[in-house]
């Protein structure tokens, strides 16, 4: 069976995903400073659930999930939302937003073996070349040899980011095999609700004295992520379902490029040769894989 190739709808969904998620990194770094990470992720997921539900009610598209909808709800709710949100927000407490954007989107590193072992996807020479370009770009941008690994939280923060990337990769693998009855948009309220319940239980367990500060940064970040989050999550999920795993994950590398640039402009994080060289490699990888 031939694989789907990118068309106008896929490019539109990719653009939405890259724009919303890329800008989210400096915004979440700024807004999450006055909150504990799991509580912040919980409130973020809860707002997303309410917004997604309101959209479906307003458009008359709210429907009860069927049995075959359970797997994608778990994939999105547990791994793409709860796991990714919590791990990313915790990492942002100790890792710069630009670097976080790069490492959290190393999904392609995990998708190559996952796609080959569990999805039966072939990794031909051209796609392998794109992966190598993407990985090289990530390595150059992250510039790990300049880090002080003895500094408090550095190693843990980077491990959390790779965990967030793996969590999303698992969601992508599950979604590629799922055959839901409802559309992705119709599944989102249930997935966000599941994520909210899981995150709430986790927040009560590990952050009993935590919470979210009431102030402009926190409220603005939550409003941005809560209102635009469902749209970007829907767009990203549609792309992962319609395109091969390696193609979608490499195309999503546009998110860290934008996240790095915006973190430099908005938060004043340093811009240097590694950023420029790595971004060129990442863009090259995206160009190769989209034309595959």
Short summary:
By secondary structure, the chain is mainly alpha-helical. It contains 12 helices and no strands.
Look at the structure and give the mean pLDDT: 86
Principal-axes geometry comes out as globular
Radius of gyration: 18 Å
Q: Helix content range of the residues, please? A: over 70%
Distance between the termini: 15 Å
Tell me the number of strands.
Answer: 0
Number of domains: 1
β-sheet strand percentage: under 5%
Give the class from helix and strand content and strand pairing. mainly alpha
Number of helices: 12
In sequence order, what are the helices and strands, one letter per element?
Answer: HHHHHHHHHHHH
Query: Which residue ranges are poorly predicted, with pLDDT under 50 across at least 5 consecutive positions?
Result: none
Largest sheet: none
Structure description:
- The protein is 75% helix and 0% strand.
- By secondary structure, the chain is an all-alpha fold.
- It has one domain (8-290).
């Amino acid at each position: 069976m031939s694989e789907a190739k990118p068309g106008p709808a896929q490019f539109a969904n990719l653009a939405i995903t890259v724009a919303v998620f890329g800008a989210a990194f400096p915004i979440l770094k700024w807004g999450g400073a006055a909150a504990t990470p799991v509580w912040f992720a919980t409130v973020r997921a809860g707002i997303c659930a309410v917004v997604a539900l309101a959209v479906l009610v307003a458009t008359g598209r709210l429907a009860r999930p069927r049995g075959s909808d359970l797997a994608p709800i778990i994939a999105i709710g547990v791994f793409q939302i709860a796991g990714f949100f919590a791990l990313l927000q915790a990492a942002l407490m100790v890792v710069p937003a630009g670097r976080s954007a790069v490492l959290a989107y190393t999904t392609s590193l995990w998708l190559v073996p996952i796609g080959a072992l569990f999805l039966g996807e072939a990794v031909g020479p051209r796609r392998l070349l794109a992966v190598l370009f993407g990985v090289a770009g990530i390595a150059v941008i992250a510039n790990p040899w300049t880090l002080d690994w003895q500094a408090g939280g550095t190693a843990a923060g980077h491990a959390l980011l790779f965990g967030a990337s793996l969590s999303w990769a698992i969601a992508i693998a599950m979604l590629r095999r799922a055959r839901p009855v409802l559309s992705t948009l119709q599944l989102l309220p249930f997935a966000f609700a599941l994520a909210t319940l899981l995150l709430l239980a986790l927040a009560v367990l590990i952050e009993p004295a935590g919470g979210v500060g009431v102030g402009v940064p926190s409220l603005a970040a939550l409003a941005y992520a809560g209102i635009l989050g469902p749209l970007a999550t829907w767009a990203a999920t549609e792309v992962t379902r319609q395109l091969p795993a390696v193609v979608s994950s490499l195309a999503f590398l546009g998110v860290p490029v934008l996240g790095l640039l915006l973190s430099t402009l908005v938060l004043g994080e340093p811009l240097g040769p590694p950023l420029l060289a790595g971004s060129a490699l990442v863009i090259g990888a995206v160009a190769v894989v989209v034309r595959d």
